[in-house]
Amino acid sequence: MAAGHEVEVVNRVRHRRTVDEYPFAWELPRLLKGHQYDVLHAHTPVVANRLAFGGYPYVYTSHSRHWFYRDRWSHRWGYWLERRAVRRAKAVVALTPTLARTMASTVRPPLPPVTVIPIGVDSTRIRPDWDRRSGRNALGVGVVQPFKRWEVAARAVRGLGVHLRIAGPMPSPDYAAAVRMAGDQVEMLGEVSEEELVRLYAESDFLLHPSSVEVLPGAVLEALAAGMPIVGGPAIEGVVEEGTTGWSLPDADPSAFVTGIRERVTRLLADDRLRREMGDRARAVAESRFAWPRVVEAHLRVYASVSAPRGPA
To answer: Is 50 exceeded by the pLDDT of residue 234?
Structure first.
């Protein structure tokens, strides 16, 4: 909209359950009746497959970790839906080069055009407050589930005098309790407001993101905008610049992974200048690589390649 285009989000939020996507997708053709549009852009596989079934051309962006992580039948079902959504799209947006390569190697031909475009971050809203940083406040952002491996972060900073705050929904009280027990100064904040999250980014010194697998973690991009060094696992590889804005560490050996995080955090704690230099570089990367205007321009090029005016459905 800021770039001068009309945008409408069609959605129905019921109970914030994953399965609610299915009844929404089923009624989507009815919801689209009477709307005029040039491009339909789907962001979830059930919706994309429903559009394909109804003969609606669409652009598809995949946000799913199921391309890389499938330990349950529901994950395998999601993976099947993802590949089908990609194959039937007019054009596809992959958030990272790694995801684009995975699509090319796993989706049955013919593969539609795939363009790598990351999600964006608003660096005017999320920014550092250097005067409020003490040097010993670590932040974690995301749902408190085992695949995020928050207990690894808690163990890694135990005994270092680090205050680790984790902001995110806690669907499993047992796992949240295990995370607290793994560390010695762990504060579980639960789900917080956008205003509170912006404040946490501004005043925290570095981000810990040990998640086992993600496509492109938004929390990491927001931390870059907030001028925070980032320490995590392979899920942030390609997002952080090694030794410049943070570190992505190998996690095949769990003990070595904890030790690696601890060593990097110890370096950050001991060197105020290093934290500031890495933070300044992180913010510069957010502004140059992940700024919304750049992301929007890339999307508009994709839209122009597939758009064809369509009257009321």
So the answer is: yes
